[in-house]
Inverse folding.
């Protein structure tokens, strides 16, 4: 990883790429400038060289003039200075004409050079002759010789003039060509510079575009991810530069987030499943508890025993005991039989009657039980074991501690589409808080479960809610502690029941 | 990276291509300039000069052109020496220059002066052979003469004059260049006069007069000829011109002074102007010769001298007359 990181930052980083690009561009433009500069320099040198030939001829002409003057001076003065000068100039001039052409060629210029050289040689001979004649004091000879020499001097001068003119003419042509070439090169240079500039710009745009392009695409992708779409297509990256790393890292990050979300989802699902399981476990536990309780008594044995008890009481003429035992048997039979199924409302009322009878036997007939029953209750199906727990509750919490004047009223009243059942006691009464606590199912059981039939108010409330799929079917009313309690339940009629009941009435 | 590598390489290659194209173009356009400075030229074994004669430039140029072709063929550089804007020299000057320049041969037309003769001799003494053209100086040490025979020329002119004689008296004016003190003009004139006298017969009276027109550079020749027409003296019936320039001047004067048809002109040489005039019947006829032959012979004479050590002293160039009957073929032949 470390190595890769180094490699990325060392070889293909954006900085490196841009530096390479800039470097190449600068190098190229530098090279171009060097080439142009080189060409211009070469051209300027040529322009110099073009006129150099004129300068050479001028030098030659000047030297010849000096030579001619030195001979004239020597002839005039015969001074040794003039003679020295003559020899010096003669030497110099000879050296200079050595450089002139001697071959016969097509070039007029070269032929002029050749003529000048040959004439100069003749001239030098003649000049030498003149000087020798002067030294030998041969007056006539040196005069004649000087005259010839002067004539030659004029010829040579005019030839030099002609050569100079010709060269100037050619040089001017060359100069014009060079100038126009320079002009052309200027234009060409500008064109090439513009072209190279355009090329450089295009290449940099392409290269930098190539670097930035993935970033733009990454931004689009990031936007989509931000909107919640994790299944986006990532830009393909082959470059190992910074952008490449960012894109790859972002890719990894999105993948990680996706993975994390998936994990979360799975764990939440598991949790929900676990809760469900826990709940069902609880339900099963309750069921098991119930089953256990039920299993504690063998109902048939109990009922047979109770019947045996009743018969025994009849044989002994203990009528009251016989009735008591029989009603007890009825009560428990109903309890066992109806635990798992619906019941008729009148069966429920009977169960209450049996219960009250049993209690009155227990508590020596102190409970005044009063019932006001609507006659149309026969065929009304209700959940089983809903009335007896209410009455049991009224006894247990209402009137147990004041049995001497205890009163319980059961009222079953048909209303529009429903039955209203009231269980009213004149017992201990309830505070509002207690009522709310019971209604919300938060009330704590203060008595032992073993002392009751096992079904509490919250059980009744829940079963009513589940059975009718409706709330508000259960209500408790009390004017306060010591002022009695009234529990009301509403039993909605099914469509068939309502119709039957209506026609009956 | 690959995506960007391709255009980058293409860009660099394109730029390099542009640069090299520019370099190449510039190199090519300046290469010729160096050549003018003195590149490869044909080399020659020898160097001859031909000294042009002032006042006969067309004729001399034609002779020079054919001679130059011949010279080139035989490996000789032939230089034409003539006065121009930068050098205004006489024949003597050019001879001196040629001698001083130590050329390998001189082709020239002597003017018969002793000065020129001396210079021809001096050249010979300096081992420079001299060939005379058109006119000869037989007394000098020239190695050869290339030209027409003066007697023959006189006879041809005489023939042309005889063709144009009137029934009565005919005035013939012979115009020749005054700058030439040579004998050949005199010989021509003599032959012409004799022939005309002999062949004209006794019935026809012919008066022949000669006039030398100065051929100097001061336009005297043209003025002198115009004087004939302006002075009001009676014009001759026939003008005989022994010089190309004189012929053209006479022709122009005849046209200017509206004398076409009144005066016959027998010209010399066949310049374009002269041939044109013959076609228009302004000039009756002209006596001419082949300039190319003359040019060739003059170079040949020098070459022969170099290869054999001696050369024939006379190369005869044939004469021909051109009149209205053969002027078209003469023009085509040119």
């Amino acid at each position: 990883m470390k190595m890769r990181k180094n490699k990325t930052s060392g070889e293909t980083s954006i900085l490196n790429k841009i530096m390479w690009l800039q470097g190449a561009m600068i190098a190229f433009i530098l090279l171009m400038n060097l080439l142009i500069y080189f060409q211009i320099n070469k051209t300027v040198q040529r322009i110099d060289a073009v006129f150099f030939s004129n300068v050479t001829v001028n030098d030659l002409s000047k030297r010849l003039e000096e030579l001619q003057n030195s001979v004239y001076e020597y002839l005039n003065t015969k001074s040794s200075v003039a003679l020295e000068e003559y020899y010096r100039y003669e030497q110099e001039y000879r050296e200079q004409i050595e450089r002139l052409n001697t071959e016969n060629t097509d070039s007029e210029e070269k032929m002029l050079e050749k003529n000048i050289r040959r004439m100069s040689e003749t001239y030098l001979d003649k000049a030498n002759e003149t000087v020798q004649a002067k030294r030998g004091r041969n007056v006539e000879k040196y005069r004649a010789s000087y005259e010839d020499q002067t004539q030659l001097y004029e010829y040579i001068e005019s030839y030099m003039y002609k050569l100079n003119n010709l060269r100037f003419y050619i040089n001017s042509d060359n100069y014009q060509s060079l100038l126009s070439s320079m002009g052309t090169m200027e234009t060409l240079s500008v064109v090439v510079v513009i072209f190279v500039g355009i090329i450089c710009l295009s290449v940099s745009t392409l290269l930098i575009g190539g670097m930035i392009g993935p970033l733009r695409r990454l931004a689009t992708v990031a936007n989509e991810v931000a909107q919640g779409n994790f299944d986006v297509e990532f830009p393909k990256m082959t470059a190992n530069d910074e952008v490449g790393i960012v894109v790859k890292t972002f890719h990894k990050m999105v993948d990680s987030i996706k993975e994390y979300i998936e994990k979360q989802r799975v764990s939440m699902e598991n949790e929900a499943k676990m809760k469900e399981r826990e709940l069902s476990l609880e339900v099963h536990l309750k069921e098991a508890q119930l089953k256990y309780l039920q299993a504690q008594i063998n109902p048939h044995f109990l009922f047979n025993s109770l019947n045996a008890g009743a018969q025994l009481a009849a044989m002994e003429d203990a009528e009251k005991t016989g009735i008591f035992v029989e009603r007890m048997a009825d009560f428990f039979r109903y309890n066992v039989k109806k635990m798992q199924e619906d019941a008729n409302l009148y069966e429920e009322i009977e169960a209450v009657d049996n219960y009250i009878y049993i209690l009155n036997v227990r508590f020596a007939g102190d409970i005044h039980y009063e019932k006001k029953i609507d006659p149309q209750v026969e065929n009304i199906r209700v959940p089983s074991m809903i009335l007896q727990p209410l009455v049991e509750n009224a006894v247990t919490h209402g009137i147990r501690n004041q049995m001497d004047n205890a009163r319980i009223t059961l009222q079953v009243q048909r209303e529009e589409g429903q039955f209203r059942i009231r269980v009213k006691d004149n017992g201990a009464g309830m505070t509002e808080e207690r009522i709310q606590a019971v209604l919300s199912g938060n009330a704590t059981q203060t008595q032992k479960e073993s002392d009751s039939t096992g079904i509490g108010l919250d059980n009744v409330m829940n079963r009513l809610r589940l059975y009718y799929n409706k709330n508000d079917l259960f209500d408790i009313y009390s004017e306060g502690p010591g002022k009695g309690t009234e529990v009301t339940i509403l039993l909605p009629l099914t469509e068939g029941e309502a119709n039957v009941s209506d026609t009956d009435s | 990276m690959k995506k960007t590598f391709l255009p980058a390489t293409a860009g660099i290659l394109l730029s390099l291509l542009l640069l090299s194209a520019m370099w190449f173009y510039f190199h090519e356009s300046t290469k010729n300039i160096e050549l003018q400075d003195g590149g490869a030229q044909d080399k020659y074994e020898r160097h001859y000069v031909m000294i042009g004669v002032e006042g006969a430039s067309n004729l001399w140029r034609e002779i020079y052109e054919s001679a130059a072709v011949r010279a080139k063929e035989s490996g000789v550089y032939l230089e034409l020496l003539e006065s121009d804007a930068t050098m205004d020299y006489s024949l003597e000057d050019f001879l001196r220059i040629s001698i001083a320049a130590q050329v390998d041969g001189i082709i020239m037309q002597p003017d018969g002066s002793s000065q020129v003769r001396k210079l021809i001799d001096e050249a010979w003494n300096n081992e420079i052979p001299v060939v005379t053209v058109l006119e000869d100086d037989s007394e000098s040490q020239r190695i050869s003469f290339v030209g027409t025979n003066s007697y023959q020329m006189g006879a041809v002119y005489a023939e042309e004059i005889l063709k144009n004689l009137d029934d009565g008296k005919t005035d013939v004016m012979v115009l020749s260049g005054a700058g030439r003190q040579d004998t050949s003009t005199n010989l021509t004139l003599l032959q012409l006069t004799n022939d005309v006298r002999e062949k004209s017969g006794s019935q026809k009276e012919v008066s022949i007069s000669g006039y030398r027109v100065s051929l100097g550079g001061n336009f005297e020749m043209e003025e002198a000829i115009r004087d004939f027409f302006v002075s009001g003296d009676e014009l001759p019936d026939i003008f005989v011109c022994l010089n190309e320039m004189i012929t053209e001047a006479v022709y122009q004067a005849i046209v200017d002074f509206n004398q076409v048809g009144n005066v016959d002109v027998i010209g010399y040489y066949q310049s374009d102007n002269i041939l044109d005039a013959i076609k228009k019947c302004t000039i009756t006829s002209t006596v001419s010769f082949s300039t190319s032959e003359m040019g060739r012979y003059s170079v040949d004479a020098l070459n022969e001298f170099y290869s054999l050590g001696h050369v024939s002293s006379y190369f005869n160039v044939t004469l021909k007359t051109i009149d209205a009957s053969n002027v078209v073929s003469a023009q085509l032949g040119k």
Observations:
- The first strand of chain B starts at residue 43 and ends at 44.
- Residues 2-38 of chain B form the longest helix (37 residues).
